[in-house]
Amino acid sequence: MGKRIESIGLDAYYGTFKAIEGVTLTIEPKSVTALIGPSGCGKSTFLRSINRMHEVVPGARVEGKLLLDDEDVYGPGVDATTVRRTIGMVFQRPNPFPTMSIYDNVVAGLKLNGVKKKADLDAACERSLKGANLWNEVKDRLGKPGAGLSGGQQQRLCIARAIAVEPQVLLMDEPCSALDPISTLAIEDLMTELKDRFTIVIVTHNMQQAARVSDRTGFFTIEATGQPGRLVEIDDTQKIFTNPGEKRTEDYITGRFG
Amino acid sequence: MSAGSVRDPATPAAGTPSPAGTGAAGTSPASSTSGLRTPSLPPWGVPAVVAGIAVLTGLLVLATPLGGRTATVVVFALLLVVVQTALSLAVEGRRRATDRLVTTSVVLAFLLALLPLFSVLEYTATRGIHRFDVDFFYRSQRSIGARDPGGGAYHALLGTVEQVGIATLIAVPFGLLVAVYVVEYGRGRLAATIRFFVDVMTGIPSIVAGLFVLSFWILGLRMGFSGFAAALALTVLMLPIIVRSAEEMLRLVPSSLREASLALGVPRWKTILRIVLPTALPGIVTGVMLAVSRVMGETAPVLLTAFGAASIVRDPFRGGPQSSLPLFIYQQAGDAQQTAVDRAWTAALTLILLVMLLNLLARLVTRRSTIGR
Amino acid sequence: MSLGALPPVPTDPADVRPGSGDGGPRPASLPLRTSGSGTAEPRGDRVFRGLSVSAGVALLLLIVAIALFLVVRAVPALRADTAGFLSSTGWDPNALPPRFGIVALAFGTVLSSLLALAMALPVALGVALFISHYAPRRIAGPLGYVVDLLAAVPSVVFGLWGISYLNVPLAGVSRFLAEHLGWFPLFARAADDVYTRSLFLASVVLAIMILPIIASLSREVFLQVPATNQEAALALGATRWEMVRTAVLPFARPGVIGATMLGLGRALGETIAVAIVLSPAFVVSLSVLQPNSGNTIAANIALAFAEASATGRGALIASGLVLFVITLLVNVVARAVVSRRREFTGGAL
């Protein structure tokens, strides 16, 4: 599992406002790629363009190519729901379905896809919760509401829910920004484990986090408000944080702006 | 946490139409290796199906003794649902077919709900326009029989204005004070009890409010039927509406505003009267207008308390039985004579216009307010 | 960015911080107590608080008074009743001796309201979903307003429209139903083939009247569903309907139940529209397609009031008391359901 993502000249709009322009990059399978940059630079927009969640916003659209192993996600005849099943997503704030139990949360995606057999669902639930390092904490209370867990546990529950449908890619939109340091550490450990199975793309505001978890890092920025965000450079994380190719990246990393 | 609706998740991306599923047959050349591509109906599929069904319905109506507007519409809707679902099921599979079925049903439900609204408005306008004349608004029904042409609803309009006016004068201060108590002072059991009973009161049928005033004021205190008795019944109906809307509006006033005022040493009651209430005013006005428009159309409680009269009664307190616009409609409509029914329709048109005007004004007030919803 | 689909969170328009920009020298010392009074609360405050508390208490007393006066007026008539009020169906309180019972009225009231609910609920939910999740956002607001307008039409106008416009076409529908589905108890054929002014007509009018109530309350609830939950469903690859089913409907269920009960309450108490369209009879019958197939408490009060004797009025008030109790029960249940939901979401978010 794990597929290569290739973005070629991708523009994303909200109505007439161009949020990102000309993003061209390649994301290697079975790696963690971090996207960093100042607020409003379009890194989240780019992330949401990968699994076509961007177009959920009224008036939002995408131009350009986004290839998942050579197949254009925005190509003719491609159904957004299929794309989203293949590319899972974890959001900024933990968002378990409040009316569902832990168990039902994990298997929600499978049920949508028509998996009905109890044994299959049970197995997938255990596998996913173990994959999300949550199994030991919740195995005795799978029937309890997911909303009763702590923030960090909820976020891992959301990760379990996302990986239960066996996606190829896992997108994470600032997954730790609402969590305390200990929960953050747990999620970061988890990412390192998950990259053996998935292509992981994470948007983060926290540069230490990018440095800790990612193999490659992409830096986005905007020239001024109202201007579209652009990708400045993407390279090995090691190189970005020690010897970036662009002055602007260095300024951002060293805290001179943003 | 913000809430809202997320729509349109799976619209086809902008760009070229899909080559897959060109037509009804499921022979799409799609399904590449990775399976991102799924067979789907082309973007022009839905309009094409709608047009096709329209033609088919037309043919059916012409060829069979179906006839009638309603039957045509029903046949069209049913065919549309069945054909589209079947096509989608064949080409796109169960999940997309269900999705399309629900979308169509939801749109049809909305259109279905609009039918009675437009029918009522259209019918009232065409029937009511006959007697929408000067006489109608300047004369009463005094010594005018059901069969007689002419006559008017001046006495009823006057009654409505007086009754609703008095009810508003009582209910607004009363309701505002209750809302102020609940929001600004209320703590513990009493406030919770009051809030609960305000909610319960919203559900009291209007006829029960009429029966209450009948039992208490007319039969109990032997005050007789009057416009004021009707106003009392309408007050009972207005109160919970005003309390609830004012309560909501007062809660929207940011507490930092209160704190700012209190911190300057302004006493609490002045803070409420000078700062909180004015800030919430547009919302409160909207609530009052909606309450007025609501009770203005009430017939049953007025029937039990003002009873109705044919002539102009100016004094709502000692004038005895009085009419009102809805009561006038009810009583004129009960007559089989065409002239009476015509008067009923004109009164209905007048009433609808008044109520809608109030509603519209209420919305405009809200829209202009800063903290309105 | 991720919450771009949401309406903007209203920002505090007046986030005033006290003491920040009000220049000017302060007096060196302020008396901490207002002179004379000796209490912490100034007199104006006491008066105003007293006023608002008494208004609140007065409102409670008003509700007690409503129940009390209905009982007081109903008791003499109930004493005079020579038939069982809770067990007999006829209604002849003006006769000597008076004979009346609530059974037929209560049955007709509940039956017509349930029928109305059965017709209105699916359409109302469709309308609410259409406006909250399906209609293009730009026109959703105005469309919602149009549906709300339906709620603004006075009931007497609905009655007038029902009797002069809807009556005849609906009789055609009724005849069709009776001829093809006559085996179903509700659709039993009329002996004389007349289908006008039936309880069914009353139910349809009631359905139209409660539809906007249920629709607008449900719409509010649907709009309160957190966008993050809906996005979570979409990100799992749900279609729009699957998103509604997984994230919206379960979250909104208690609110929708509450809205339904409120609609039911309205239908139970609706008077004048039913009084106008219905050809009443004091019978307990399931065959609703024919005239004289039933009556409702509220409509009967309006119809019988003008010619009621003293006992007759008392009897009507007694029937009103029964209606009051029924609607009270429905409303209390509705409120309980809705407030349970409030606690629930409060814990979840």
Please, could you describe this protein's structure?
- The complex is a heterotrimer of chains A (258), B (373) and C (349).
- Chain A is globular, with a radius of gyration of 18 Å.
- Chain A has a domain of 177 residues: Rossmann fold (3-Layer(aba) Sandwich), CATH 3.40.50.300.
- Chain A has 10 helices and 10 strands.
- Chain B has 373 residues and is an all-alpha fold.
- Chain B has 13 helices and no strands.
- In chain B, helix 5 crosses helix 12.
- The two termini of chain B are 17 Å apart.
- The relative contact order of chain B is 0.10.
- With 349 residues, chain C is mostly helical.
- Chain C has a domain of 208 residues: MetI-like (MetI-like fold), CATH 1.10.3720.10.
- Chain C is 66% helix and 1% strand.
- Chain C contains 10 helices and 2 strands, in the order αββααααααααα.
- In chain C, helix 2 runs parallel beside helix 5 and helix 6 crosses helix 7.
- Chain C is flat.
- Chain C starts with 42 loop residues before the first helix and ends with a helix.
- The N terminus and C terminus of chain C are likely disordered.
- Chains B and C meet through helix 3, helix 5, helix 6, helix 7 and helix 8 of B and helix 1, helix 2, helix 3, helix 4 and helix 5 of C.
Distance between the termini of chain C: 20 Å
| Overall geometry of chain C | flat
Overall shape of chain B:
flat
CATH superfamily of the largest domain in chain B: MetI-like
Q: How do the helices and strands follow one another from N- to C-terminus of chain C?
A: HEEHHHHHHHHH
Counted by DSSP, the helix tally of chain C is: 10
Largest sheet of chain C: 2 strands, antiparallel
Q: Unreliable segments of chain C (pLDDT under 50, ≥5 consecutive)?
A: 1-31, 33-38, 343-349
CATH topology of the largest domain in chain B: MetI-like fold
Structural class of chain B: mainly alpha
